[in-house]
Amino acid sequence: MVYYKILTIGAVYDFVRGPLLLVAILLFMSGTIFQILRFIKLSRMKKKKLRRLSVFKKTDWKNKINSHHIKRRIAMLKVTILGTNTLMAAVCFVFHLFLFVVPVFLIAHNVTLDELIGINIFPFIFADSTSDFFTVIVILCLIFFFLRRFFIKRVRSITSINDFFILFIVATPFLTGFYLSHFSAGYNIIIILHIVSAEFLIAAIPFTKLVHMIYFFINRFFVENEYSFTDSSRKW
Fold first, then answer.
1. Can you spell out the DSSP letters for 67-105?
2. What is the C-alpha to C-alpha distance for residues 7 and 58, in angstroms, rounded to an integer?
3. b/e per residue, 7-32, with b = 16+ CB within 10 A?
4. Whole-angstrom Cα distance, residue 203 to residue 206?
5. CB-based contacts of 201, cutoff 8 Å, min separation 6
6. pTM to 2 decimal places
7. Which residues pair with 223 in a beta bridge?
8. Is 37 helix (H, G, I), strand (E, B) or coil?
C-alpha cells in the first residue's frame, strides 16, 4: 500500500512537472496572442500627428535634461498614484519587483529548469536566506492588498469576490514555496500543490485581471495617452 502511494504521488509529480506545465505555457501564450489581437481590433492607427500633452513624449536627449522638461515630469507624477498615494505606489513597486525576481533567481527553480530543459542562471541566484526574505516581503504586500480591500471604504465598494480570488492564486505559490523551504511535513503533497498553483497562475494571466501585466506594456509603448513612454502609433 505504501509502495502504491509512492508510485501514485510520483506519477502525479511527473505529470504536473511535464504535461501540465506545457498546458499552462500554451494557455498563457495563446491567451497573450488573443489579447494582442483584441488590442489591435479595439484600437486604431493615428490618422494624423496630434500634439501630445504627455510629459513622456519622445524628445531628443538635450530636451530631456533641461529644467523645464524635468519640472513637467515632476508635475505629472503629482497626479499619478505616486503623488496621490505614495504608500500604495511604494508597496506596488516592491510587490511587482519581487513577484518576478524571486521565482527567477531561486535556487530550486534553476535546478528544476536545468533538469527539464538544461537552462539555468547560475551563479546569479539568491541565497536561501535572501529568497526567504524577499518571499516574506511579497506575502506582506499581499496581506496589505487584502486588508486594503476590507478597511478602505472606496476600495471595498468596488471589490468583488474575483479580486480576492486573484490575491489567492498569486499568494498560493509563495506561501507553499515558503513552507517547503522550512518544513517537511506533507512535503509530497505541498510540492505538487506548489507546482499546480504556479502553473495555474501562469495560465490565468491573460484571462483574469492579471492581464494588466500584458496591457501595461501595450498602453505604455503602443497607445497614445498621457502616460505613454513613446510617441505611440495607436489610440483607443
1. HHHHHHHHHHHTTSHHHH-HHHHHHHHHHHHHHHHHHHT
2. 60
3. eeeeebeeebbeebbeebeebbeebe
4. 7
5. 169, 170, 172, 173, 210
6. 0.80
7. 234
8. helix
Q: How confident is the model at residue 55 (pLDDT cuts 50, 70, 90)?
A: very low
Is it true that the peptide bond before 173 is cis, omega within 30 degrees of 0? Answer: no
CB contact set of 185 (below 8 Å; sequence gap of 6+): none
CA gap 43, 122 in Å, rounded: 42
User: CA-CA distances (angstroms) from residue 40 to 35, 59, 111, 228?
Assistant: 9, 26, 39, 17
Gap between the Cα atoms of 208 and 167, Å rounded:
12
Continuous segment of H or E residues that includes residue 45:
strand 44-45
C-alpha cell at 167: 490575491
Residue range 65-121, pLDDT digits in tens: 556 666 666 666 666 777 778 899 899 999 999 999 999 999 999 988 888 888 888
H or E segment and range at residue 143:
helix 128-151
All cell numbers assigned to 235:
489610440
Q: Residue 66 corresponds to which cell in the numbers above?
A: 533641461
Q: Given this model, what pLDDT does residue 123 score?
A: 82
